[in-house]
Design brief:
This protein is mainly α and 289 residues long. Helix content is 53%, strand content 1%.
């Protein structure tokens, strides 16, 4: 190993703020690397933290279960979460498909990282959703927002995560040094974008539905998007743009946005400057936290 080269990588990691990975490397069959550069380990473990969060939310919503003990790395059980009583068979199938995808991402990353894989941190996939909704509306909502209450609120809960995964994982591309993992990363970015497009399409189809909070689905989505933008460096859009559908979130060049790890952390911890709170009450595990 070239020590000077790795020191330079570590310095670059600090200077760039470790541009984040959202969902990370999924279904490609790659060998476990006996020795990874520090920067790759840090980025992939950051991605693993976020995959734990997404997997736990979707597994609970779709099946009423968590990751296995082996796949969690022995981390503490999540706070909250339960199976959604889906009224729509289509939404149920979407939830199940995404849940399996996210579970597979966790398994892939843990296998790739080997003994360097961090354990699942403490996750809040219950009260944190209500806190996020309250922050988005700048008031205490009644009833408290619950993504497991019905199909529509499940879709809103999923919306909180999916666009973040796309922007975060795109940002990781410049930092992953191993080309095999970079190729897998491109594949996972595509999967996360499929998920995001699926959720946004479902919400747009119901954009005019009035929720129990007296506002439409479109308004709730816009509130969530605005909150993410306010703490996550902008780079966010609702599902309606000038009276037209806005399913694919892009910049002026029709290129997906990138977020740094700091921007991602502020979103998942609900704006915490200490990078603790929200969906990660005690922060993330690993070098990026």
């Amino acid at each position: 190993m070239n020590i000077n080269r790795n020191m330079n990588r570590r310095q670059a990691l600090q200077n760039l703020g470790l541009v984040g990975a959202g969902a990370a490397l999924a279904s490609c069959a790659l060998p476990v690397m006996a020795e990874m550069p520090d920067i790759d380990v840090a980025v992939l473990n950051f991605a693993l933290n976020l995959e734990y969060l997404e997997a736990e939310f979707y597994l609970q919503a779709a099946f009423g279960r968590s990751l296995s003990a082996a796949d969690s790395g022995g981390g503490p059980a999540p706070i909250g979460g339960r199976k959604v009583n889906f009224a729509s068979d289509a939404v149920r199938q979407y939830a199940e498909e995404i849940a399996i995808d996210e579970e597979n991402h966790v398994k892939f990353l843990r296998k790739a990282l080997g003994t360097a894989a961090v354990a699942r941190p403490q996750l809040d996939i219950g009260p944190a959703f209500a806190a996020a909704a309250n922050a988005a509306f700048a008031t205490t909502l009644t009833p408290a927002f619950d993504p497991y209450a019905n199909d529509l609120f499940f879709l809103h809960g999923a919306f909180i995560f999916e666009d973040v995964g796309v922007t975060a994982y795109k940002g990781a591309a410049r930092l992953i040094t191993n080309k095999d993992f970079l190729e897998a990363a491109a594949g996972i970015l595509a999967v996360e974008a499929y998920h995001a497009g699926e959720i946004r399409t479902q919400l747009y189809a119901q954009k005019d539905v009035v929720t129990p909070y007296g506002v439409t689905v479109e308004t709730i989505v816009k509130k969530i998007s605005d909150l993410r933008a306010s703490v996550g460096g902008g780079k966010d859009q609702g599902i309606n743009d000038g009276g037209k559908s806005n399913i694919v979130v892009t910049d002026a060049n029709s290129i997906a946005f990138s977020r740094s790890t700091d921007e991602v952390l502020r979103i998942v911890t609900l704006g915490s400057a200490m990078n603790k709170g929200g969906f990660f009450p005690n922060g993330l595990n690993g070098a990026i936290k």
